[in-house]
Amino acid sequence: MSVIQLAVDGIVYGSIIVLGAVGLSLVYSIGDFPNFAHGDLMVAGAYGGLVANLGLTQIGLQPTSVFSPELLVTIVAGLAIGIVVAVATHYLVFKPLDSGPIALLITSFGVALIYRSLIWMGFGSSARSYNFPRSGPIGSIRDATGLAVTNRMLVIVLATAVVVTTLHFVLQYSMLGKKMRAAADNGDLARISGIRPRETVLTMWVGGGALAAMGGVFLGLHTLIRPLMGFDILLLIFAAVILGGIGSIYGAMLGGFAIGLAHEMTPVIPGVGSEYGAAVAFVIMIIILLVRPGGILGEETT
Amino acid sequence: MSSFELTYDGANLQKENTVLEVAGLKKSFGGLVVTDDVSLAIESGSITGMIGPNGAGKSTLFNQISGFYDPDDGTVEVNGTDVTGKQPNKIVQEGLLRTFQTPRRLEKMTVREAMLVGAQSQLGESILPLWISGAEVTREERANLERAMELLEFFEIDHLATEPTTSLSGGQMKLLALARALMAEPDILLLDEPVAGINPTLVNQIAGFIEELNQEQGYTFFIIEHDIEFLMGLAEEVIVLNQGRVLLEGTPETVQSDERVINAYLGDM
Amino acid sequence: MNVTIPKTDHELGSTSVVLLGLIVLLGLAILTGALTVSYATYLIALSGMYVLLALGLNVQWGYGGIINFAVVAFWGLGAYVAALATARTSPLGLEWHPLFALVVAIIFSVIAAILVGLPAIRLRADYLAIATLGFSEIFRLLVANETHITAGMAGLAGIPSVLEDLPFDTVTTNLLVVAVAGALVFLFLRRIHRSPWGRVMQIIKADEDLAESLGKNAFSFKMQTFVLGCVIMTIAGVYYAHFIGYVDPTDLDPLETFFVWVAVILGGSGSNRGAVVGAFILVAVLEGTRFLTDFSIFAALSTGPLRLLIVGVLIVLIMRFKPEGLYPPRDELIWPKSQTDTEGQS
């Protein structure tokens, strides 16, 4: 496979990681703990989308292409579930705990197991897929460039671009966005002064849950929907967040694409196969943790 | 034993009596200079105070002396040994011990356990001797326990020996920190605001303790304190730090009446 | 209020009540035919292995506050070294004596712990958690893919059983070995914990800067606990390989790490007894879920997710309502012999 093709795949996978990473970074900096349930939150969103998707099929709507209103419904349903689950978890588990980051970290792992087991119980362990026609690579792109790009890949990248751009404007120009950025940038300050306004925390979970769910739906769209896929992608998302710098939302975007590319382009490294895609991403993450724990866009900390 | 002529004067220092010598310490954080060319020397057996408005760089100075920050420039010598840039634990082994402004509660530790940690170079802190020299560890531990109880008695908190540290009041924590520091029998003790936020009775009591330790046992103290009054009765020499620089030094009386000091304090508040 | 409130005999009593209760349950299960004897002994041996793992993690997290999310990797290191060195099917074809393999596994474990610890142990807690999880996954991927060395996903079978040289049947040997190993590790840890060494670890856990300010080399102490804990995990892994006789990369699922964490926090971080009790309860939960599905209300559920659900709920509930665990550490970390004839003791 050509290097450019690998890069294209990397951008697609990176898009999914970006969606996960931005939400995780928000929660990490404002909520002040690494949420190990974030991967499974994505899966919850993916299954939320699946329910809507199957529902549509049930009432006789057969999407002819992935570019369809059905996809929108699927995504919106996923988002709704992601938000509900994230906010409910906040109120039921994290908020009452009111403890240090380490206790929250450990608890979040328990939460991850609860999400995972409930999804597994509800939907079984076998892989599912959304009811959209699978089409091969888009002919015109293949003819023009020799690259295999499917409709699904196009949807994922375009939708992520829209989300990222929207997020950029929200963060730059809305009052709430500015508050979020301030809270995220100043994780330390927030920690010391104990200032975690209710509104910011709630927005963090809504935003984090929505983005996670969208990432989850796209992950399911890109491959298949499996109840255990959350953990596989969780550490990649952490890698993206750490690479970009915890609390830096733009860093998470950059880190997401970088990790996606590293993950897919591993075969470029002589003697290393694609089976080590994740390992390469983790090595990058560990190196960043050791030499520049603030991330490439974060503040340098010692 | 006490010296009233501790003006810093580079070459004229009596090296053999100088327990701490700081020369040209510089530290800045992201362009903000916090300590700028600070030099001072402290003689064995003295009590030296340091005052200065908030943000003058007092704690940063302590952190550089005790090894928690690496200075950008300058040197720190303890008992004639250059300790600049060394790890905090190595500097303790040279004889310099410091306390913190806000003593943090030690979960799941009793007062006497916390005291015992203060003792230096304990054989039982290595795993192997716990197996091959049990008897010696026992002897050492007994001796340390005894000393811990003596110190707790001296500070009149021996009744709390088996209480969890989490049940102590702020003042009692300050006393514990002081007592624990003495477990190490340091040549010089750096106290970072030893009486901040505690009641006046206890403040006087602590002043009494420090004075007694200095006069009767010859302990050397270097004390940061906001409460100028506290230092006035105690220190022979007071150094005023302002905006990272030594503004002046002298006897408490001279310092108190100096216009620059008054301005520095008023200017900050 | 004295911290050493609970009397020793009372505490020992309640620990043994829990263990006894589990054993009685096991006995009942055998008598009623719900369990076979061989399954029951398997359960006890498995519990013994988790006891070792929990003791190892307790050294790191309970004593020193070091987060290690690579428990399964250090366990797997032991299991794989044992398997590769002794199994008939090993691509390396060594077929060493298991005791020799054990020594080699421990040496590897020390080296690996130092290699991971040297850079990572200085990281703040949350970074260390993520980094160690990263290490764990890298190890798993290597084992799964370096087929020419590890046999990859095919796994390694034909690992000789535990100490075949002993004049007992396999089941007895299994139980005996894990009981002896568990007891030795427990006694070793108890001695080093209630000592100046354990005390320094405690203060490092509470406040690392304070420990440094009192002349303690925090990094050195943390490395010691990290290596020690990892070696204990590796011993558990070596035992597992010989006990089960087969390993493959799916054994290296990070989920195992979190099972061990549950045992430690449920038992009570910092408490050796807690780790022991926690490990037994963990196995009761993990294996007990098999039987829950016999009851009609759970009939529709498969064991896998039910087990995850219970473990997940356990974590959340413990952290919320009993973060100190069932058996929080009770002893003052003072060398016991030094107190036998001085005044003011509990």
TrEMBL record, chain A:
InterPro entries: ABC_transp_permease, BCAA_transport_permease. Coiled coil: none annotated. GO terms for cellular component: plasma membrane. It holds the Pfam family BPD_transp_2. Keywords: Amino-acid transport, Cell inner membrane, Cell membrane, Membrane, Transmembrane, Transmembrane helix, Transport. It comes from the Archaea. It is a multi-pass membrane protein. It is found in: Cell membrane. CDD domains: TM_PBP1_LivH_like. One of its GO terms (molecular function) is L-valine transmembrane transporter activity. Its main location: membrane. GO terms for biological process: D-alanine transmembrane transport; L-alanine transport; L-isoleucine import across plasma membrane. Belongs to the binding-protein-dependent transport system permease family. LivHM subfamily. This is Branched-chain amino acid transport system permease protein.
UniProtKB/TrEMBL annotation, chain B:
The keyword ATP-binding applies. Belongs to the ABC transporter superfamily. One of its GO terms (biological process) is amino acid transport. InterPro entries: AAA+_ATPase, ABC_AA/LPS_Transport, ABC_transporter-like_ATP-bd, ABC_transporter-like_CS, BCA_ABC_TP_C, P-loop_NTPase. PROSITE patterns: ABC_TRANSPORTER_1, ABC_TRANSPORTER_2. PANTHER family: CONSERVED COMPONENT OF ABC TRANSPORTER FOR NATURAL AMINO ACIDS (PTHR45772:SF9), CONSERVED COMPONENT OF ABC TRANSPORTER FOR NATURAL AMINO ACIDS-RELATED (PTHR45772). Keywords: Amino-acid transport, ATP-binding, Nucleotide-binding, Transport. SUPFAM superfamilies: P-loop containing nucleoside triphosphate hydrolases (SSF52540). Pfam families: ABC_tran, BCA_ABC_TP_C. Residues 20-268 form the ABC transporter domain. GO terms for cellular component: plasma membrane. It comes from the Archaea. SMART domains: AAA. Probable component of a branched-chain amino-acid transport system. One of its GO terms (molecular function) is ATP hydrolysis activity. Gene3D superfamilies: P-loop containing nucleotide triphosphate hydrolases. This is Probable branched-chain amino acid transport ATP-binding protein LivG.
Automatic annotation (TrEMBL), chain C:
The chain crosses the membrane at residues 12-33, 39-59, 66-87, 99-118, 171-189, 226-246, 258-285, 297-319. Signal peptide: none annotated. GO terms for molecular function: branched-chain amino acid transmembrane transporter activity. The keyword Nucleotidyltransferase does not apply. InterPro entries: ABC_transp_permease, LivM-like. It is found in: Cell membrane. It is a multi-pass membrane protein. GO terms for cellular component: plasma membrane. It comes from the Archaea. Pfam families: BPD_transp_2 (PF02653). The keyword Transmembrane applies. Keywords: Cell membrane, Membrane, Transmembrane, Transmembrane helix. This is Amino acid/amide ABC transporter membrane protein 2, HAAT family.
